[in-house]
Design goal:
Blueprint (H helix, E strand, L loop, with lengths): L7 E9 L6 H10 L4 E3 L12 E3 L23 H17 L11 E6 L7 H12 L8 H10 L13 H10 L5 E4 L5 H14 L5 E9 L3 H10 L27 E10 H6 L6 E10 L5 H17 L6 E5 L6 H15 L7 E3 L2 H4 L7 H14 L18 E2 L10 E7 L4 E8 L2
Parallel strand pairs: 4-5, 4-6, 9-10, 9-12, 10-11
Antiparallel strand pairs: 1-7, 1-8, 2-3, 6-7, 8-13, 12-13
Helix pairs in contact: 2-5, 3-4, 9-10
């Protein structure tokens, strides 16, 4: 680290979520307590045990690319399209003149996960290989006619690093470039890596983002079989209820977003608007289950120590808030271990109550919610929090409340125990 520490600030926001495809709409939903969890409209959901989620409606990727670039959409699945659109929105919000950026010091960091295939891509091959006999797979058919049914460019739609690749190509970002494939925590880890790189003077300007879709036929079947999804099909708008005693599982969603992370003097020289400064980052691993709570504690304490602040200095915690019975309890216990000794209850805000779990696309829009809370001096309420759970000893925001301190903490983790925490300060 250099002797004169460089500073990293957030100067642009782009979001594509079930509650809004731009910053004003996104913030209005939080301010007015309007969620975006609803019955799935993209395909026939009737055979699924969970038939709702946080679905992005009205998204047209052509609106985010110049006409000469739209042919690239042929090799961009929905997840990649979310990434490209989010980056475009964040750059526009930052007000930067790209022609004045040094391409070699313009980096891209993205969070990603497994990009699900579409039925029309693999369905015909699957039918050939099953030889119309459910439960069987004929490998000889797969090596012949099966592969021939798959579109030649199929793989380019589904490689996780394609998010960062397409964003970099479109914006001539020739600096540090990486993809973090750690599912739900990926976007926050990407922000942490970009922050570390920037303060080490390896770049001046970053696009940091994440995108994912859990709302697709193949992905929904897998999740219904193997994940702890909510079954509240009769009232989807009330299904996402982080830390509430009546929560019954994760709500699948889709979307993503991007932020511009920029060196402070670089932003100041061009007159950029600064939402907040990133002042601390921590990451840890807690295996899984209850051990993840201890990993989260270590990540939070590392981020607070780097920021040079104590738990009492934090205005609010922007929580993971899965709405899963066990995971919310473990998260709350970890937060209580860090913040329980403060002289005041530290409010906990759970953005997933508005749109569900966006997978690798979650962390950045959730972070954006707190950046906008600082911008508007208002921390939103957590939706559907009605009955406190003794297993979740945290103070959840039941109503909107004013910002009272200049720091907030964003945390995230995965079901397998990867944890991250970021402290941001309002300037």
């Amino acid at each position: 680290m250099t002797s004169a520490r460089r500073r990293a600030v957030l100067t642009g926001i782009g979001v594509l979520t079930p509650i809004g495809l731009d910053v004003p709409t996104f913030w209005d939903a939080f301010r007015n307590g309007q969620g975006g969890v609803r019955r799935i409209q993209a395909f026939d959901r009737s055979a699924l045990s969970t038939r709702f989620g946080g679905e992005v409606l009205g998204f047209d990727s052509r609106n985010y690319l110049d006409k000469k670039e739209r042919k690239r959409l042929n090799v961009m699945g929905r997840t990649i399209q979310f990434a490209v659109a989010g980056a475009q929105l964040a750059l526009a919000d930052s007000g930067v003149d790209k022609s004045r950026l040094d391409p070699a010091r313009f980096g891209v960091e993205y969070g990603a996960a497994t990009i699900p295939s579409e039925l029309e891509e693999l369905g015909p091959a699957a039918r050939v290989c099953a030889n119309c006999q459910p439960g069987t797979v004929h490998l000889a058919n797969w090596g012949g006619a099966g592969i021939g049914c798959i579109p030649p460019m199929w793989m380019l739609n589904h490689v996780p690093n394609m998010l960062a690749c397409h964003v970099s190509i479109l914006h001539n970002a020739q600096g540090p470039n990486n993809t973090i494939t750690q599912t739900d925590v990926a976007g926050l880890l990407a922000l942490g890596e970009a922050y570390r790189t920037l303060i080490r003077d390896r770049a001046d300007f970053f696009l940091v983002g994440g995108a994912d879709t859990m709302i697709s036929p193949i992905n929904m079947v897998r999740q219904c079989l193997f994940r702890r999804l909510s079954r509240r099909n009769d009232a989807p708008e009330r299904a996402s209820r982080p830390f509430d005693r009546l929560r019954d599982g994760i709500i699948p969603g889709e979307g993503g977003g991007a932020v511009v992370l920029e060196e402070f003097d670089h932003a100041r020289r061009r007159g950029g608007r600064i939402y907040a400064e990133v002042v601390g980052f921590g990451a840890a691993f807690g295996r899984s289950g209850e051990a993840a709570s201890h990993g989260l504690v270590r990540a939070i304490r590392a981020a607070l120590a780097e920021a040079g602040v104590g738990p009492e200095d934090i205005d609010h915690v922007n929580a993971q808030g899965y709405s899963a019975v066990d995971w919310d309890a473990w998260e709350a216990q970890g937060l209580s271990e860090v913040f329980g000794g403060c002289g005041r209850p530290v409010p906990v805000f759970a953005p997933k109550s508005y749109f569900g779990n966006l997978g690798a696309g979650s962390s950045i829009p959730e972070l954006a919610a707190s950046l906008l809370a600082f911008e508007h001096n208002l921390v939103p309420a957590t939706l559907n929090y009605k009955e406190p759970d003794p297993a979740c000893p945290v103070t959840v925001t039941r109503t909107p409340q004013p910002v009272s301190r200049p720091f907030f903490l964003k945390v995230s983790f995965t079901e397998l125990g990867q944890c991250a925490a970021v402290v941001c300060r309002k300037l």
